[in-house]
Structure formats: C-alpha cells, structure tokens
Amino acid sequence: MAEKVSRWESFKKFLKRNMTPLWAKRFTYQVLSFLISVAMVVGVALYAFTKSYDERTLTFVDGFTITAHTGAFSTPDNSMETIEAAIEEGTADVIELDVRQRLDGTVVMGHDIITTNTDGVEVASAFEVIQGSNLRVNLDIKDTRVLPALYQLIQQYELSDRVFMTGIEVFQAKTARESCPGIPYYVNYIPSRLKIFSEDYQEKLLKMLEETGAIGINCNHTYASKTLSDVLHEHGYKLSVWTVDRVYQMKRALVNEPDNITTTEVGTLLDLIENWGEK
Known about the structure:
The protein has helices at residues 7-18, 21-54, 80-89, 123-131, 147-156, 173-179, 199-212, 226-234, 247-255, 266-274, and strands spanning 65-68, 94-101, 107-109, 121-122, 136-141, 163-168, 185-188, 216-220, 238-242, 260-263. It is α/β, with parallel strands linked by helices and 279 residues long. Helix 2 packs parallel to helix 9 (247-255) and helix 3 (80-89) packs parallel to helix 4 (123-131).
C-alpha cells in the first residue's frame, strides 16, 4: 500500500520542481504586492476613521479622569518612581497600582505572582507618599486574598474617598464588597460591540451590574463603544477603559465619552485633548 503524502510534502515537491529563479522572482513580487495593498487599505481605513473622530465635538462626562498606568512617565512598573513622577508632573488625576501580597501577607505593588517576602514595593510606602498629594488611586487587584489587609491600609492612611478598585471579576464582586465595604469598584467585563445594540443584552448587562454592586465596567478600549457608554450613563453607571497608548486609540476612546481612561502616555493624551481636531 502506497504511503500517503501530506499536502505540505506535495507542496514542497511542487516548489522543488517549479521554483526557477524567474518563477521565484514573480512569486515574491506578487506576495509583496499583496502585502503592500493590504497595508494601504488598512492605512486608508485607519486614516478615515481617525479623521471622522477629529470632526466630532469632544465632550466629557462630569468627573472624567485620566489614570496614569503603572510605569507611566518612563518609570519602572509598580515603583515609587512612578508615583513620585505622577505627583511631580501633576497631569494625571489618578495613579494605578497593581496590588498583590507577599507570602507573609504584606501588601505590595506587583503585576506578576509574588514568590518571596522581598518582592514588590510595599503599598504602605506608596500610600504614605500619595497621602500628601491630590492623587486618586486606582487599585488594580491581582489577587482578592489581599483585600482584607488592603482595606486596613486604606483606613490607616485615610484614603477611602480617594481610591477605587479595578481588576475585580464578576464572580469576585461579593468578596470585594464584603472585604472592602464602602470602597467603589468596577467589574472587569468584555462587552459585545454587536450585542450592545440589543435591548435584551443591555438589560442583562444592567442586571449584572446591579447584582455585583459595581459602579461600572472596566474593559479594554477595543470593546468600548458610544452605545455602551450611553447605556451605562443613562442608568447611573460608569465606563473605564484601558490601556490607551496610541493616538488613534485615544481618539476613539475619547469620542466614546468614558468616565476614565488609563494610559501610559498621559502627556500625549492631554496634548491630543488640548489640540483636538488639529492632529
């Protein structure tokens, strides 16, 4: 019985028989032409979209804030340098801290899993510096086990009215509510950009928010839309989007009228707002 030849093997044999220098040159040219054409189409579409954003009137919801993502201002992630730079620059309304705990229970800043009792900068040190500023704090919770100890620190440094939490999944909302009473939090959610036009989907979304007790939705900017923003605002909820670092992303995020934009490029976002329609 003849051994079955895979399509890949057949293709390689075809190339070996037919890949003359002239054929290879023509094939390469066709591939490059195709890729260039795709790039041009994408570029034109992107230009058209961003241009249409520029032509819209820029408006903001009451209380709109800009959060400096950890590592903003060209500083290391989850470092005291980021906090100090945010205070010195004075351009961001909020500073983001990724929150975890060490094995011994110490609350620290850290995005990845903490494996030793020396990893991460203590949140207490961050709160001590923040306490003397006007900065608000977005506590991005990476592990809900940290919540009871974090709540104690919030109370100790009298920051209850200046902090809110993100990173809370829907199934973690009850834990957040019980562990940190009175501290507002967004739920992480991936809304559908298509289903959001459906009244049934909107009702499902609103019911979820009511049941979780969240102040709103925190999502990647690619899932946000003006319709989502309108639905949330009409029912007293908020929209927070992350992490918006490129100009075209900023334009799209701004016209959606969110309550909060998290970005590493605070200066670029502020410059875009100030010169809206000119870039």
